[in-house]
């Protein structure tokens, strides 16, 4: 869009300086500027849609990570309650195997 706008603007200024005529912009040039502006606007809308989708996905993943971290903490607490001293449990298991 910027390329076409710059090209048309510079051409308009050059023609104006040479011929001193201000009515040199034709409808086809305005059409080209409109097409390039529409293309740039469409591209900006598509990019903003992608950014919104990625931002939402990032928030979902962050919430899932927090939930998983809480679940891990709860499971570790439950495991510690079931087996308060892992070293003692291992020794007890070894003793029971020796008696067999």
Note down, in words, how this protein is organized.
With 100 residues, the chain is mainly alpha-helical. 88% of the residues lie in helices and 0% in strands. Helix 1 (2-19) runs antiparallel to helix 2. The model has no long low-confidence stretch (mean pLDDT 78).
| Count of individual beta strands | 0
Approximate helicity band: over 70%
SSE series:
HHH
- The percent range for strand residues is under 5%
Gyration radius, rounded: 36 Å
User: Strand pairing plus helix content: what structural class?
Assistant: mainly alpha
* Average pLDDT metric: 78
Low-confidence stretches: none
Shape category: rod-shaped
Q: Outline the biggest β-sheet.
A: none
User: What gap, in angstroms, lies between the N and C termini?
Assistant: 86 Å
* Tally of individual helices: 3
Please name the defining characteristics of this protein.
mainly alpha, single chain, 100 residues, 88% helix, 3 helices, rod-shaped
Draw up the topology in text.
Elements: H1 2-19, H2 27-82, H3 86-99
Helix pairs in contact: 1-2
In short, what is this structure?
By secondary structure, the protein is mainly α. It has three helices and no strands. Helix 1 packs antiparallel against helix 2.
